[in-house]
Specification:
- The complex is a heterodimer of chains A (332) and B (344).
- Chain A folds into 2 domains: 9-189, Rossmann fold (3-Layer(aba) Sandwich), CATH 3.40.50.970; 203-330, Rossmann fold (3-Layer(aba) Sandwich), CATH 3.40.50.920.
- Helix content of chain A is 36%, strand content 19%.
- Chain A has helices at 12-26, 50-54, 66-78, 97-104, 107-110, 140-144, 157-169, 180-183, 218-232, 250-260, 275-287, 319-330, and strands at 9-10, 30-34, 59-61, 82-86, 120-125, 150-152, 174-179, 188-189, 203-206, 211-215, 237-241, 244-246, 263-270, 296-300.
- In chain A, the strands form 3 sheets. Chain A has a 7-stranded mixed beta sheet, with helices on both faces.
- Chain B is an alpha/beta fold.
- Chain B folds into 2 domains: 3-313, 3-Layer(aba) Sandwich (Rossmann fold), CATH 3.40.50; 318-344, no CATH class.
- Chain B has 13 helices and 8 strands.
- Chain B has helices at 21-46, 60-67, 84-90, 94-101, 105-108, 126-140, 158-169, 189-192, 217-232, 262-269, 273-283, 289-312, 331-340; strands at residues 3-4, 76-78, 146-151, 174-180, 183-184, 187-188, 209-213, 238-243.
- In chain B, the strands form 2 sheets. In chain B, strands 1-7-8-4-3-2 form a 6-stranded parallel beta sheet, with helices on both faces. In chain B, strands 5-6 form a two-stranded antiparallel ribbon.
- In chain B, helix 7 (158-169) links the parallel strand 3 and strand 4 (174-180).
- The longest helix of chain B is centred in the N-terminal third of the chain and has 26 residues, at 21-46.
- Chain B is globular.
- The model of chain B has no long low-confidence stretch (mean pLDDT 96).
- Classes of the chains: A alpha/beta (332), B alpha/beta (344).
- The A-B interface holds A 31, 57, 62-63, 65, 67-68, 70-81, 83, 95, 98-99, 102-103, 105, 108-116, 147-148, 150, 171-172, 200, 246-248, 250-251 and B 76, 105-106, 108-110, 112, 117-118, 121-122, 125, 127-137, 139-140, 158-159, 162-163, 165-166, 169, 324-327, 330-332.
Chain lengths: 332, 344
């Protein structure tokens, strides 16, 4: 599959698989588990071959119970392991919310540092691939509203590998949300070997002057398409990939907005109370003087993600809707 | 299901006891130590020197009997808020427990030599975590066991069942101790479940379930000891149902008169686990009133010293609110920390 080592390209699933493999090889405390992650290698194959390679004690299937998976992982972490749990779809996290809200991010605080939970919870999220009902949720705002956890959402194979290795090494619990649309939809060069990318830093994807597109995960690709179209008309859009929602790199967002004077926040979750509202609020608090137009949110509608796939493209933001927002901002 | 019992309702041994005289004395002492704390804690609470406090009067044997099988630096204890008696027996310093029930962060920091997770407040969340802790010890091959406590009401929660199932599937060295004290705040057990015995629920997970007289220290201790030995031997978890009664209110804020009769409570007070154990020792000629007086004096002294120590702890400072959330404070927290310290 890999023709030339220097220029090898991987998709997101392969990059994640490689990161898990390396973490398991490098740190004996790492264990990988969840529903169907063992013999089958996960429904998206993120753990393909890992049980066979690292053994059933380190890569294993669990009973079909999300709260059990998260609680079990918290226990493993407190006893010195580095658990990496897979929740099959982010929309299936909800049964585990008590474990997540009451304990995962609170253990360090309520034991004043005696116990911590260095656990990673990976979950595929978001739409764009005609999944069945309740398989396309984007719960990042819910997860970002929990003290003590970090939330990371990679947007490319290289970022996925480096950020996942950082997440597994992180001393605190990290939600690692992986856009389903990007799993096999994107292939890109990924450096070989072990490397980490910093959690808590936003990434400049494209520099521009007309407006700042602030996005993450599956929406980065959408914003890139919009920026290419705009560029043909001579409008240079800047794209900032937030990458880590918690802790948020506010500085990079503000620098971009102060430069362009216009901010458009793009996310595919439901609009009200979405993470883009937090981004908009920070811009209003810190950079109001720099704004030449109001902050605009381009997001999913205030409705469940549509189970009828024929119209899902009307729910999930696309380049056309991003460009509409750009036009509104530029003509304000 | 048969109920394991070694002492009759008055404390007279029904048959040969599986504990040594030394152990019987150690057990009685642990019971008295727990009760001393409970009684004094309620007084502190009424004086405004403790926060909301969940008393455990009547349940001492169920907690102490299990915890006496554990080693604090090796095994693990996952208590719910009702299990201060277990925490005391496990080795938590009394001053720490006073601070803990004062909601003082100094009390939340459990000493490194005591493998206890801070009291669980949500119901049943400790069960999957205890299964994870136990599986971790099994992976390490340490021979350590985990004891997780829960009440009869808690067995209605999903996490109880998920945790039992995980523990079962992974043969986790875990003791799930259900103190069936008759009441989940105001809801009686018969409204909580249709099975006659909580221990029957173990059958759904293919693990042993035993019922013990929870007010009989000898019965609890011996059943827990057998379960711990099985667990250490790689034979997986056991569900222990200790039949007991919460003689006290749910918490210092509760009024049991609204949901149960005094006659019922009186009936259980006559089966008091400490009285039964004392009668047992007296019957075996292991205990005298002189020894009782000496023990009482010693335990009073210990508690008063603990209060004094707790009183000397510095008051929590506002900026501690944002400390220990992450290993390192992030920028927003740093700003909050500076604000709370009154620094620009």
């Amino acid at each position: 599959m890999i023709a030339e080592r220097e220029n090898r390209v991987l998709n997101n699933v392969q990059a994640i698989n490689e990161a898990l493999d390396m973490a398991l090889a490098q740190d004996q405390r790492v264990v990988v588990f969840g529903e169907d992650v063992g013999a089958m290698g996960g429904v998206f194959r993120a753990s393909d071959g890992l049980m066979q390679k690292h053994g059933e004690k380190r890569v294993f299937d669990t009973p079909l119970a999300e709260s059990g998976i998260v609680g079990f992982g918290i226990g493993l972490a407190m006893a010195g392991f580095r658990p990496v749990a897979e929740i099959q779809f982010a929309g299936f996290l909800y049964p585990a919310l008590d474990q997540i809200l009451s304990h995962l991010g609170r253990m360090r605080h309520r034991t004043r540092g005696r116990f911590s939970v260095p656990m990673v919870i990976r979950a595929p999220y978001g739409g764009g691939v005609k999944t069945p009902e309740q398989h396309a949720d984007s719960p990042e705002a819910i997860l970002s509203h929990i003290p003590g956890v970090k939330v990371v959402i990679p947007s490319s194979p290289e970022r996925a590998k480096g950020l996942l290795l950082s997440a597994i090494a992180d001393p605190d619990p990290v939600f690692f949300l992986e856009a389903i649309k990007l799993y096999r939809g994107v292939k890109a060069p990924v450096p070989e070997g072990f490397f980490t990318l910093p959690i808590g830093k936003a990434r400049m994807v494209r520099e521009g002057t007309a407006a700042s597109l602030l996005c993450y995960g599956g929406m980065v690709e959408v914003c890139q398409k919009a920026a290419e179209v705009a560029a043909k008309e001579g409008v240079e859009l800047e794209i900032v990939d937030l990458e880590t929602l918690v802790p948020l790199d506010t500085q990079t967002i503000l620098e971009s907005v102060r430069k362009t004077g216009r901010a458009i926040v793009v996310y595919e979750a439901m609009r009200t109370g979405g993470f883009g509202a937090e981004v908009a609020a920070r811009i209003a608090e810190e950079a109001l003087d720099s704004l030449q137009s109001p902050v605009i949110r381009v997001a999913g509608w205030d409705a469940p993600y549509p189970p009828f796939s024929a119209v899902e493209n009307f729910y999930r933001p696309d380049a056309r809707r991003v460009l509409e927002a750009v036009r509104r901002a530029l003509t304000y | 299901m048969d109920t394991v019992q070694y002492l009759d309702d008055h404390g007279k041994p029904l048959r040969d006891l599986p504990l040594s005289n030394e152990e019987l004395l150690q057990g009685y002492r642990a019971l008295c130590r727990a009760r001393q704390f409970d009684e004094r804690a309620l007084v502190l609470q009424r004086q405004g020197r403790l926060g909301v406090y969940p008393p455990f009067r009547g349940q001492e044997a169920a907690q102490v009997g299990v915890t006496l099988c554990l080693e604090a630096s090796k095994d693990w204890l996952c208590p719910s808020y009702r299990e201060t008696a277990a925490a005391i027996t496990f080795g938590m310093p009394l001053s720490k427990l006073i601070l803990s029930w004062r909601a003082d962060p100094a009390g939340w920091r459990i000493p490194d030599s005591v493998n206890m997770i801070q009291f669980y407040i949500p119901i049943a969340t400790q069960i999957p975590q205890a299964a994870g802790l136990a599986h971790a010890e099994r992976l390490k091959g340490s021979g350590a066991v985990v004891a997780a406590f829960i009440g009869d009401g808690g067995t209605s929660e999903g996490d109880f069942h998920e945790g039992l199932n995980f523990a079962s599937v992974f043969d986790a060295p875990l003791l799930i101790v259900v103190q069936n004290n008759g009441w989940a705040i105001s809801v009686p057990t018969k409204k909580q479940m249709k099975v006659q015995r909580v221990a029957l629920k173990a059958q759904g997970y293919g693990i042993p379930g035993v019922v013990v007289d929870g007010n009989d220290l000898v019965a609890v201790w011996s059943a827990a000891r057998e379960a711990a030995a099985r667990a250490r031997n790689g034979e997986g978890p056991t569900l222990i149902e200790a039949i007991t009664y919460r003689v006290a209110p749910h918490t210092s804020s509760d009024d049991p008169g609204r949901y149960r009769t005094e006659e019922e409570t009186e009936r259980w007070i006559r089966r008091d686990p400490i009285l039964r154990m004392k009668n047992c020792l007296t019957h075996l000629e292991l205990w005298s009133e002189n020894q009782e007086a000496e023990l009482t004096e010693e335990l009073e002294g210990e508690f008063l010293a603990a209060v004094e120590e707790a009183d000397q702890a510095p008051a929590p400072r506002p900026w501690e609110i944002v400390e220990q959330v992450y290993a390192e404070m992030h920028a927003d927290q740093q700003a909050a920390w500076n604000y709370l310290r009154g620094e620009p």
